[in-house]
């Protein structure tokens, strides 16, 4: 621990790192960071290409047995997803997904990331994944259930906000005085000291996240339980 360092310093440094990551990217990166999209099936004239054409009058629609529909995103190397949205088509409620599971990893070893119960009042954009910390080569969205016992899924599109993993590489240059104006506890601390402490915090976060799923059961319902826990 650096001389004179306190828990409050760690909190301030954590806030600095979070704020820095927040500034990396805020725009739609769907076409820039996705290599290709695969789907379980598609109805005639409702192809997977419509998921990223940004048109409000086109959509992808599945065509197959209920409960076996999915969309697979093959991500470009190094892309880390900050937000992933489904753009719903609310014109026909039986085509709107009600329960969705997201899996990520390599194609041969996909791991469950989150299950989302979509609110009945959601008619447009629904965020189903957020704040990933590592690159996932494949993200697979599985539609477990539709509203009104619907058979097929219809989406106007998908949208992601993401950044490149090398944008998060820590370096001492991040901690120059001009960058620390809003962080009074960090001002005057040597940049190399802040860098080494930031590396330690980042390693701790990675270790904690790797075991968190064994400590706290994943919620199968909604984000409400997580917010209460946080």
UniProtKB/TrEMBL annotation:
Residues 7-187 form the DOC domain. Keywords: Ligase. The keyword Transferase does not apply. One of its GO terms (molecular function) is ligase activity. Coiled coil: none annotated. PANTHER family: E3 UBIQUITIN-PROTEIN LIGASE HECTD3. This is HECD3 ligase. The gene is Hectd3_2.
């Amino acid at each position: 621990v650096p001389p004179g360092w306190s828990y409050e310093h760690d909190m301030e440094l954590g806030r600095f790192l979070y704020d820095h990551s927040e500034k990396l990217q805020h725009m739609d990166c769907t076409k820039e960071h996705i290599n290709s999209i695969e789907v379980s099936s598609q109805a005639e004239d409702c192809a997977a290409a419509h998921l990223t054409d940004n048109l409000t009058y086109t959509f992808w629609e599945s065509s197959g047995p209920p409960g076996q529909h999915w969309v697979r995103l093959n991500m470009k190397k190094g892309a880390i997803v900050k937000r992933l949205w489904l753009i719903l088509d609310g014109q026909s409620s039986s085509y709107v997904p009600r329960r969705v599971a997201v899996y990520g990893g390599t194609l041969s070893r996909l791991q469950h990331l989150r299950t989302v119960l979509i609110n009945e009042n959601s008619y447009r954009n629904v965020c189903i994944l957020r704040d990933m910390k590592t690159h996932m080569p494949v993200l697979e969205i599985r539609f477990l259930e539709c509203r009104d016992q619907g058979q097929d899924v219809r989406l106007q599109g998908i949208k992601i906000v993401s950044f490149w993993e090398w944008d998060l590489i820590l370096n001492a240059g991040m901690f120059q005085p001009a960058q620390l104006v809003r962080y009074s506890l960090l001002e005057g601390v040597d940049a190399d000291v802040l860098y080494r402490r930031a590396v330690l915090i980042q390693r701790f976060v990675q270790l904690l996240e790797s075991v968190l799923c064994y400590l706290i059961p994943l919620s199968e319902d909604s984000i409400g339980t997580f917010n209460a826990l946080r």
